[in-house]
Write a structure and sequence with these properties.
- A hairpin with a 2-residue loop joins strand 2 (about 55-60) and strand 3.
- By secondary structure, the protein is an alpha+beta fold.
- The chain contains four helices and seven strands.
- The termini are far apart.
- The protein has a domain at about 10-120: Gcn5-related N-acetyltransferase (GNAT) (Aminopeptidase, 3-Layer(aba) Sandwich), CATH 3.40.630.
Length: about 170
């Protein structure tokens, strides 16, 4: 990936034109260390059913997609609309350079403007770097499903974390 560190980081809602780069990033990021199963999108149409335009914030630098943060209500119930479930992916070339933190901060602002009170996420216990990152961003553990997955010859917990906006 061509890096232009002098360019400012741009964060905006995802658009149809981002689909190819988002699929590429998903195939690069989501594996047995980061998800219960690798993501493998067969087409842009399949991807768009999962993540329609506007359901993600994308981070771009110099026109290159550095990462994204997906969000949405975890259920269709009206009584659950004050909660967003999020997931985040940052290209390895851009990790530890503030992209993820910038996406989280942008999400906190967007959620507050939408009267969302809580952000929640799930992570694998083996993804120690991600858990540390979420804690650094103010997320706290709410619960854990012990030995929820058997991945790469080991049992792995699913960790539930949240950030309260109010």
């Amino acid at each position: 990936m061509f890096r232009t560190d002098t360019e400012p980081l741009l964060i905006r809602p995802s658009e149809f034109r981002d689909v190819r780069e988002l699929i590429t990033l998903d195939h690069l990021i989501w594996n047995e260390d980061t998800a219960p199963a690798a993501l493998s999108w067969r087409s842009s149409e399949e991807y768009l059913l999962h993540a329609p335009p506007g359901s993600q914030l994308v981070a771009l630098k110099g026109g290159s997609l550095c990462g994204y943060l997906g969000f949405g209500c975890p259920t269709s119930h009206r009584c659950n609309r004050h909660v967003y479930e999020i997931y985040i992916a940052v290209h390895p070339d851009w990790q530890r350079q503030g992209v993820g933190s910038s996406l989280i901060e942008a999400m906190k602002k967007l959620a507050a403007e939408a009267d969302v009170r809580k952000l929640r996420l799930r992570a694998l216990s083996c993804n120690v770097q991600a858990l540390a990152f979420y804690r650094k961003c103010g997320f706290t553990e709410e619960g854990r499903l012990r030995e929820e997955f058997y991945l790469a010859g080991r049992y792995v917990d699913e960790v539930f974390m949240s950030y309260r906006l109010v």
